[in-house]
Amino acid sequence: MKPVFINCIATAVPDFDIHSKFIEYCPRLMPDKRSIKLFQRMAERAQIEHRYSFLQPHP
């Protein structure tokens, strides 16, 4: 059996940062105010600053 090596470790980040659009859009899908508040609290506490997509967001 031949030995295996890791030649390189890198991070690939898609072009489009969609985090703000995601945070803005998701509450529209929620059925009630309680769910919206819960989502907003979870999004804030997750401390996610950027969420990327390879798909270009709709303007």
| Strand portion | 5-15%
Q: Considering DSSP H and I runs of 4 or more, what fraction of the residues is helical?
A: 25-40%
Query: What's the Cα radius of gyration?
Result: 18 Å
* Shape verdict: elongated
Count of beta strands: 2
Helical segment count: 2
- Secondary-structure element sequence? EHHE
Q: What class, by secondary structure content?
A: mainly alpha
General description of the model:
By secondary structure, the protein is mainly alpha-helical. It has a domain at about 20-50. It is about 35% helix and about 5% strand. The radius of gyration is 18 Å and the shape is elongated.
Write the layout of secondary structure elements.
Blueprint: E1 16-17, H1 19-25, H2 33-46, E2 52-53
The gist of it:
The protein has 59 residues and is mainly alpha-helical. It has a domain at 19-48. The chain has helices spanning 19-25, 33-46; strands spanning 16-17, 52-53.
